[in-house]
Amino acid sequence: MNQITMQLVADKYIKMALEEDINSEDVTTNAVMPEAKQGKVNLICKEDGIIAGLGIFERVFKILDEKTDVSFMKKENGEAFKDGDQVKKGDLLAVVSGDIRVLLSGERTALNYLQRLSGIATYTHQVSSLLEGSKTKLLDTRKTTPCMRIFEKYAVKIGGGHNHRYNLSDGVLLKDNHIDAAGGVKEAVAAAKEYAPFVRKIEVETENLEMVKEAVEAGADIIMLDNMTYEEMAEAIKVIDGRAETECSGNITKENIATITRLGVDYVSSGALTHSAPILDISLKNLTVTE
Asked: Does pLDDT of 6 surpass 80?
């Protein structure tokens, strides 16, 4: 996520998160620290994983006070920690320095982002590593936390996955209810081709072989094989015969993904990347007063 995106898009969500946590004042911090004092606190990793969201972590404190300094520590190779790095339990990732009131008030929001995104990146890395050596690309879904999609999809990319469409304006995906509303697969694809710009691909979600055949005949660009058995998917791929790209979806986890990728599908999408990834345990510890 570059600085322009951060300022234009991410800032508003970070501010919303801060306002959610501090709707009038931080009563506890104001009680113990009525006046400004300078201090510092350590960012420490408490379990192994892939780090993601360091820039967002920093931005939380900068929004509260631009004078806050977040100094990322150097690894053994002399480079500072950055998103995508493997981290280990006990690693000192950064030192945050500034007004102690800012450090205390921003702590939870900053850690919420960093823990959540690092957890998604870690889980995605574990799943994507199971696809190495295959042509199949790992995709996320729209099953994201409200107002967290820009961050969570970023974390998927950091973990080695790829982004499916970002939102409803980003692409055509005809799901079961769209097909029912249109009156069938053929009718839904025809309507999409008529309405959507020609540069956009049309994807159809199918649940059985009959729908697969209809999607192929209607000229779908991508055919999603949703919640099918292994045998059904194998047969569907034969029916498609290279006339459309293929995507497998439905209850995809790191426990079963290896079996599915042996089919040779182009994409496998997993909502679990964002809705079921556990957080990575990271803490701000050892706060000290420097003046």
From this structure: no
Structure tokens that stand for 78 in this block: 């002399």
Taking the C-alpha atoms of residue 281 and residue 287, their distance in angstroms, rounded to an integer, is: 18
Whether residues 269 and 257 fall in one domain = yes
Q: What are the catalytic residues?
A: 108, 143, 175, 205, 226
Residue keyed to tokens 């009680």? 31
**Structure token pair of residue 289:** 């007063």
Range of the domain at 115: 3-124+278-289
* Other beta carbons within 10 Å of 178: 16
95 and 223, same domain (yes or no): no
CATH number at residue 20: 3.90.1170.20
Q: Phi first, then psi: what are they for 126, rounded to 5°? A: -65, -40
pLDDT tens digits, one per residue of 134-186: 999 999 999 999 999 999 999 999 999 999 999 999 999 999 999 999 999 99
* Strand partners for 247: 224, 267
CATH assignment of the domain containing 224: 3.20.20.70
Place of tokens 């501010």: 15
Give the H/E segment covering residue 40. Answer: strand 38-45
DSSP summary character for residue 36: -
Residues 83-107, buried b or exposed e (16+ Cβ, 10 A)? Answer: bebebeeebebbebbbbbbbbbbbb
